[in-house]
Structures are given as structure tokens and as C-alpha cells.
Amino acid sequence: MSVTTSIDGSVAAQPAPLILTAGGSLRGTVRVPGDKSISHRALLFGAIAEGETVIEGLLPAEDPLSTAACLRAMGVEVSAIEAGRPVTVRGVGLDGLAEPDDVLDCGNSGTTMRLMLGLLAGRAGRHFVLTGDASLRRRPMRRVAGPLALMGAEIHGRDHGNLAPLAIEGQPLRGAEIRTPVASAQVKSALLLAALSAEGPTTVIEPAHSRDHSERMLRAFGADLSVHGPAGTEVRVRPGAVLRGQRVVVPGDISSAAFWLVAGAITPGADLTIENVGLNPSRTGILEVLLGMGAAIEVLRAREVAGEPVGDLRVRHSPLRAFAIGGDLIPRLVDEIPILAVAACCAEGVSRVNDAAELRVKETDRLAVMARQLGAMGARLEEHPDGLTITGPSPLAGTALASETDHRVAMSLAVASLVAASDSRLEGAEAAAVSYPGFWEDLARLRC
Questions:
Q1: CA quadruple 328, 408, 318, 274: dihedral positive or negative?
Q2: Which of 105, 312, 335, 365 is an active site residue?
Q3: 437, 396 contact by CB (below 8 A)
Q4: Spans of all domains in the chain
Q5: Is 95 a catalytic residue?
Q6: What is the pTM assigned to this prediction?
Q7: What are residue 419's DSSP bridge partners?
Q8: What is the pLDDT of residues 398-432, one digit of tens each?
Q9: Closest CA to 253 of 335, 330, 177
Q10: Is 221 helix (H, G, I), strand (E, B) or coil?
Q11: CB within 8 A of 153, min separation 6: which ones?
């Protein structure tokens, strides 16, 4: 352990850097944690439904735990969240959430905070305050609070309602037609949650199709929801329907599977099978890009589970060529761009990421962080306002690295270290627990 001395003179123990050993290969079978997006939504929709919701495969990581803690603080019974055990949510109905005794802590979870804004905005006569850790308090929330204001929501916070802590004065909401400036599943989902209790129908129109887990699951719970427009970019909710508790089976998170897909593709001799991965078309941009790069990936046992397409993915080492991504594809793989940057370092040619300024307002500025960390390993790259240009193949060197508290950065650097010329040291490896608590154990087990 290392130690850090704070301003007040107290000393806090910090985990020692993790040694990332270079070389070797990867073989075997792995099952990634449950999809984080679906886990959040199953908890939230179960809370406002009538009756009991049973969730199998819910991700037992920090972000869904934050959602569950907020719901418990408002009177919802949520059973203990433990790996391998179903989670039971006893719903309180659409208007049954109680005003909490204290501030609601969203931890590091932007999904928790943004969806809670939509969930709570229409709870007339009740007062709520949302906060989070230092990272979350720096992330922009006006992108949700602004559209909700068009429905009559009253949300106040630092920087004119852009930064947490955020105070919500529950109001009667009105239906509206809202065009969002960016394609964001979090913004869309917050608006759909608010629409459930608004006076009159609400239509949300996005510039491109973002992940559609909320639409699929809300319909399964009984919401009066329909999808229209080119590529499903218009979603309409009519209030009044009663949501009923459901059995939800959460597939493996393709965003977590992406680390193994890239690791298998770039590591000589690798042969990995990732089981039970969610293959929702709004999330499979990572597969399209990797296949376009020449990655040897097969979809096995394709099937449907609880309304979501699922399959096993086998990946083997293969030579890769450069890619260019941007436009409407970005919302379908925005969380996978850090690991795609690692793939680009191993691909022949110049890879380009455009239209990805959204990455600057994630847990970290992921464009800057990945440019900084991969640059320290010797990658040939340039950072742009909305993306990256990466020239490959770039021989990577082992060095001192830092996750900068970002879970996806931590795991992306772990994959890069596999093909480095020497060992690396990673500060902040524990950040991976936000979405993949067992990542380091799985990595050790698959190495050969």
C-alpha cells in the first residue's frame, strides 16, 4: 500500500500499483458481468411497478449498488445484491416513492443521477437532493435538466443547474415533444421516465438511434410506449398505464465483453469464448468495427432471452487493419472507444475516431486520458476536439500508467499491457470494480 496525506494532515492508505506483466497469451471461456445499462433500468422500473420484480444476473458492481441504495432510501424494498443470486424488488407503484430523509448519493454513477432526475421530477410536492462523488459532481447534468424543464420540471444546482448537488422540487409535469441535441440513452430514458406520470403524451426525438433498453423494458413492464421515425429515433409515451412487476434476465454486458474481444484479437495465440453476451442491435457497433478490421469473431448460440438478443462470442488472434468511425455509429459504441483505441495501436494503417466529444464528459475526459496514457506507452496518436487519430501498428512499451479513476481506462490499459515489450505498473486498478468487479481475477485465469 502507498499513503496519501490530505490537506488536513490525515493519512489515507492507497492501493499499491498493480504490476501488469507483458507477454503470454489468452485462452479459455469467460462470462462477463451483467449488462450495466439493463441492471440500472431493471431496478428503477421494478421500483415504480406494482408487485414484485425478480432480476437474474444483475451486475453486482458499484454503479447499480448506488441505484439500489437511492431506491431503498425512498422506501423501496430491494434485496441484497450478490453475485449469482436473484435480486427482488418490491415495487411501490408509479407515485409511491417517499421523500427521503437525507441526500441521495449516486456515487460515481452518471446513469443513476440522470435517470433519477427523470424519475423524481414528477413526484409533485416532494423534495429530493442528488449528489455523488467528486467525479460525478463535475459531470454535466443540464443535458437532462434542460429537456425536463420543457415538461415543467424544477431542478436547481451549481452552474445554473448543470452540476450536482442537484435539488428537485417535484412538480406536475406536462407532455411535450422534445428534440434532443445529442443521441443519448441516458437523456432519452430520463425523459421517458418523466413521461410516465406527465399530463398528456410525450414524444422524444433523437438525431440518431441510441441504445434502446429502456424502450424494450418499459413495454415489457406494461407502459404505453411506441417507437416511430427513421431508425427508431422517435419514442412516444402515453401516460396512464400501470406497470407490473416482471422477471428480468440480464445478459452479459457487451461493453465488458469488448475488453476480451480486443484482447483476443491482438494477443498472439489467443482463443477466447465470451458466454451469454447481450447483442442488442443498438449496442453492437463494437462488433461491426472489429469485424471490419478483420478480427476473427464468431457469434455462437444466438438466441433471445427476455426480449433481448443474446449469444456467445468466440475471438481468436488475427491481423487487424485500421478503422474510421463517426456519425450515427458513435452512440452505439461510445463506451467502447477507449478499448478501440488500444486495437488501433495494433492495426495496420491510420485509425480515426470522429464525432466523439461525448467522451470528454464521461467519468473522465476519456479522449484526453487515453491519449495521455497510450502516448506514455509510445503510441503514435493525436488528440482532436472530438476524437483521436492513431497510427499503427505502434510498438508499445511498458511504463507507469494510471486509470485516472476511470474503470474503462483501467481495463483498456490492462489489455494494452498484454502486447507491450515490458511490464507496466497501473495506479488505480481498483477502478475496474465500477463495472467489472472480477476483471483482474478473470485476466489472471485466462492467461497462459
A1: negative
A2: 335
A3: no
A4: 2-33+252-446, 36-249
A5: no
A6: 0.85
A7: none
A8: 999 999 999 999 999 999 999 999 999 999 999 99
A9: 335
A10: helix
A11: 117, 121, 122, 145, 168, 171, 173, 194
Predicted confidence at residue 2, as pLDDT, reads 42
* Mean pLDDT, all residues of the chain: 94
| CA 224-145-48 angle, 5° bins | 40
Question: Among 416, 429, 317, 407, which residue's Cα sits nearest to residue 373?
Answer: 416
Give every CB contact of residue 84 below 8 A, 6+ residues apart in sequence. none
Grid cell, residue 197, equals: 406520470
Alpha carbon distance 409, 286 (integer Å): 16
**124 Cβ partners below 8 Å, 6+ apart?**
170, 171, 172
Give tens-digit pLDDT for 61-89.
999 999 999 999 999 999 999 989 999 99
Domain 2-33+252-446 and domain 36-249 have a common topology: yes
CATH no. for 36-249: 3.65.10.10
Q: How does pLDDT run across 218-269, given as a tens digit for each residue?
A: 999 999 999 998 888 999 999 999 999 999 999 999 999 999 999 999 999 9
| Listed residue (37, 35, 115) closest to 71, CA to CA | 115
Q: What is the pLDDT of residues 92-108, one digit of tens each?
A: 999 999 999 999 999 99
Helix (H, G, I), strand (E, B) or coil at 294: coil
Q: Is the CB of residue 180 less than 8 Å from the CB of residue 206?
A: yes
The rounded Cα 89 to chain-centroid distance in angstroms is 22
What dotted CATH number matches 2-33+252-446?
3.65.10.10
Q: Could you tell me which of 392, 421, 411, 230 has the C-alpha nearest to residue 322? A: 392
Question: To which residue does cell 454486458 refer?
Answer: 253
Residue 58 and residue 87: Cα distance in Å, rounded? 7
Q: For residue 130, count other CB atoms closer than 10 A to its CB.
A: 24
- pLDDT tens per residue across span 304-321: 876 789 999 999 999 999
Q: What pLDDT band is residue 5 in, cutting at 50, 70 and 90? A: very low
pLDDT tens digits for range 334-347 = 999 999 999 999 99
Phi, psi of 288 (to 5 degrees): -60, -45
Whose CA is closest to 297, among 260, 268, 340? 260
Phi, psi angles (nearest 5°) of residue 129: -130, 130
Q: Alpha carbon of 171 to those of 75, 123, 192, 383: distances in Å?
A: 20, 6, 16, 43
Give residue 13's pLDDT band: very low, low, confident or very high (50, 70, 90): low
Count CB-CB contacts under 10 A for residue 314.
17
Locate 245 and state its grid cell.
412487476
